Amino acid sequence: MDTMTPAPLPLYQRPGFLLRRAHQISVGIFEEQCRPLGLTPPQYGALVLIDASPGSDQSSLARAMGFDKVTTLRLVRGLEEREYVHRALSTRDRRQHELTLTDKGRALLAASVPLVDQAYHRLVSPLEDGELQELLRLLAKLESGLGANARVKLEPLRKPGARAVQPPAPVAAPADDARLPATGTD
């Protein structure tokens, strides 16, 4: 009697399927780790970006996260209702809302750092450093080569004074193995 296990369907080896599954795993780990704070990856990403660029408008936040404007509006309203973000009409353009973190938002962001780091380390734990760097390099290559095909354009936020580099190169892991921090949008 033949006891061979049938080969998995080709679906399970397709990049899109594996990328979606990896995203599900990433979100699950993040949400489990950050459950005590009630923080989701998009909320964390928004807090990080608003903190890095206080006074930026919702449209800029949407582009920096690769989200559509309606999703971003809902995200910001939720953060505003929880008193983590302050939203005010722009003095430069009355059609825009400027975003800043409240003291409560800054405290949440600070409290999230160790939990987010733990989630990130857990997510990448099956990979050796060289594998992690290769994965990041390949994902960056996919983004730079195919990002224009996404439903929503991504315009990464740059540090003030930093020159934009195209395509973005993956960041090498520090020697002390304090691997890259998660953005929360992953």
Provide an overview of this structure:
The protein has helices spanning 15-34, 41-52, 58-65, 69-81, 103-124, 129-146, and strands at residues 85-89, 97-101. With 186 residues, it is mainly alpha-helical. A two-stranded antiparallel sheet has the order 1-2.
Keywords:
186 residues; two-stranded antiparallel sheet; mainly alpha
Q: How many H/I helices?
A: 6
- Along the chain, the helix and strand elements come as HHHHEEHH
- Category from helices, strands and their pairing: mainly alpha
Strand order of the largest sheet: 1-2
Major beta sheet summary: 2 strands, antiparallel
Instruction: Choose one word for the global shape.
Output: globular
Number of strands: 2
State the assembly state of the protein chains. Answer: single chain
Which strand-content bin applies to the residues? 5-15%
Would you summarize the structure shown here?
The chain is mainly α and 186 residues long.
Topology:
Blueprint lengths: L14 H20 L6 H12 L5 H8 L3 H13 L3 E5 L7 E5 L1 H22 L4 H18 L40
Antiparallel strand pairs: 1-2
Helix pairs in contact: 1-5, 2-5, 3-4
